[in-house]
Amino acid sequence: MANLPIVQFEKKIVETVDQNPVVVIIGETGSGKSTQLSQMLHRKGYTNSGIVSVTQPRRVAAVSVSRRVAQELGVRLGEEVGYAIRFEDRTSERTQIKYLTDGVLLRESLSNPELNQYSVIILDEAHERSLNTDILLGLMKRLVRRRASNLKVLITSATLDGEKVSKFFSDCPLLTVPGKLFPVEIFYSKERPISYLESSLKTAMEKLVSKLEDKVRSLEEGSCMDAIILPLHGSLPPEMQVRAFSPPPPNCRRFIVATNIAETSLTVDGVVYVIDSGYVKQRQYNPATGMYSLDVVQISKVQANQRAGRAGRTRPGKCYRLYPSRVYHDDFLDVTVPEIQRSSLAGSVLYLKSLDLPDIDILKFDFLDPPSTESLEDALKQLYLIDAIDENGSITSIGRTMAELPLEPSLSRTLIEANEYGCLSQALTVAAMLSAETNLLPGRSKNNEKKRKYPPLELPDGSGFGDHIQLLQIYECWDENDYDIGWCKDYDLQKRRQSYRNLRKALSIGFASQLAERMRHHNGFRTLGFKPQLVQVHPSSVLKPDDDGLYPNYVVYHELIATSRPYMRNVCAVERQWVIPILEKLDKLDVRKLSGGGLGHVEEITEGNKSDLLKKEAVIVTAPEEQESKIQAARERFLARKGKK
DNA sequence: GAGCACTGC
């Protein structure tokens, strides 16, 4: 600890914090900022008036850093020094220094908006610009004004964006603490390679791994060290991931082929050489279409430096950049496009609405990098369609309940509705199956089928209603058979009679903003919550055309993903009469009214009559003859309005 | 008839 660079700056840091409510610290890798800042402020007495807290974007970091600090202070973890992450709170009444994920701090501020238990809040790794960190930055700016006398906020960031953060906080002081990295020599290539292995990163890694193996095998005996070639990415089973971390046998070199998981999340010790492709695969959301895509994009300078830094942790290293220095300097952005500018914001906007911040217009919330108006309006529209906010933008009681649930809004809305229909347990299963990347489903690739010794097990088929129902059936099967592999034999007969009607209705309400209508003369679907666009049921779906070759008329989908074509992933058949209220809501939607708190309109639409309204919408659909014309009328009004735009 | 970066409550 004594030889950490930051220690020499203690006096300066503490003085600056004493005199200013907000301080930005530029702490380079290896500076010791994550473990030392909290201890300095503790020594200065800041833990006498409250807890000193440090946020981290990842759970593992919160746990490992707090463990380290407890060790350095010679206390038991969970007492004076503790941490809080999802599912695990290791703090006590004696806790003075607390590490937590930024998601946990956001949750805490729901029940205690002033965060009075804290005397200091340190937002660590703010340069990573996670969605939660960005929301916290905006909230901190408000909070220091309210608690100017007794709250200190520290933000740690990278060289390239420190100025900007300081500006955001009214030109607060900015301190730089050097890191402790061994020198890394940078080599640029003259030009970019013409062909990259494959657009799919995983395929590329597999090929790269086997190419490396071939190459090593073709070398003459004794012409180089022995080599172990190891892949490292998130979808690798943990025991395979561990292999990348064990030191190689003597006279043997490790080649680790990694995704950006090795950029920040994991640190492999002993890395001396880094080869940087200059690219990253990034998920993006398009608010105009509601569509996600996974694109290969250029990295930022911060990312490039982070990658290079991985080579100099234990001794001097070298970094080979597969791009010219001109590209680095002229083409790369300084910092990564913040997540807030490439995600769906429904959840975050609902969270902000639920805080009841006085006089807040979501469209004018003070973000470090504001998301586009379009993105915010998309979020508002989605929230309105699932009854989380009313037509004046006020949060509803349903919305409040939703905000408390740690789920994406469409799923939390589904759960609330399912509870009304008495199918909560089923809905919980579906929500859990959708939230976890299901591994109960066997791979369906031709490759796997060829490799399998035995014919594939008969899996439940969703009984013609689609993927959500299949997920539920699979889980039920699994559960009923004591998680036994030989389950599912006479399963189809038992379950096919169910229509899962209540559950599907709950899903139709939760996913009202993710609704699609089949085209009249073919099996393509048109999205209804966004400007009409043609999308298809993803080929991996269990929902198949019926005996007449047709899909259901209406489906809700879990997400839109643009790959080779626009697809709906995870679709559920819904009934026409459930769609009417949604179309009617879309029809009277005025997105301009949704951004404010609806002040002045609160008396007109109370929580009480809001739920009455919902009931009425459900009653409207009971007269069968009227249904057809109502659907028609609502659809035509809706489509006409869209046509005008 | 597809394609699997990474986090988090």
From TrEMBL:
Annotated EC: 3.6.4.13
Keywords tagged on the record: ATP-binding, Helicase, Hydrolase, mRNA processing, mRNA splicing, Nucleotide-binding, Spliceosome
Enzyme class, first EC level, given as a word: hydrolase
InterPro entries referenced in this protein's UniProt entry, alphabetically: AAA+_ATPase, DEAD-box_helicase_OB_fold, DEAD/DEAH_box_helicase_dom, DNA/RNA_helicase_DEAH_CS, HA2_WH, Helicase-assoc_dom, Helicase_ATP-bd, Helicase_C-like
Record-linked SMART domains: AAA (SM00382), DEXDc (SM00487), HA2 (SM00847), HELICc (SM00490)
Chemical reaction(s) catalysed: ATP + H2O = ADP + phosphate + H(+)
Domain Helicase ATP-binding, chain residue ranges per copy: 14-178
Any one GO CC term of the record: spliceosomal complex
Helicase C-terminal domain sequence ranges: 183-356
GO molecular function: ATP binding; hydrolase activity; RNA binding; RNA helicase activity
SUPFAM superfamilies: P-loop containing nucleoside triphosphate hydrolases (SSF52540)
Domain of life the protein comes from: Eukaryota
Gene3D superfamilies in the record: 1.20.120.1080, P-loop containing nucleotide triphosphate hydrolases (3.40.50.300)
Protein name from the UniProt record: RNA helicase
Organism whose genome encodes this protein: Gossypium arboreum (Tree cotton)
